[in-house]
Amino acid sequence: MSHRIELSLRAQQDLDEIMHWLSEPSPAGAATWLHRFNEILTTLTDDPQSWSLAPENDDHDEEIHHVVFKTRRGRKYRALFIVRDDVIFVTNLRGPGQDFLPPSEIGD
Known about the structure:
By secondary structure, this protein is an alpha+beta fold. It has helices at 9-23, 27-44; strands at 4-7, 65-70, 76-84, 87-94.
């Protein structure tokens, strides 16, 4: 079953912040990162529940999975998501050096 992807308001804000931060020194780097992020989202659509549970999972009522992806320079980013029926609901994006999210900051 193929799933569709939706970003929460918080995830969209995270995306905007990451793109702003990356585009300041390198618009081309920001475009590359966005392309990679979209590729990662596409990989989630066939079997999203096969991805590992996020460390934040224990603090939330619904299962929270995450996918970790790297830039060419090795910086790690995470996309946290919840699977609801046929929707992959991306709740948050986390960049290098950002701590795990407390329950109150998980986007819905």
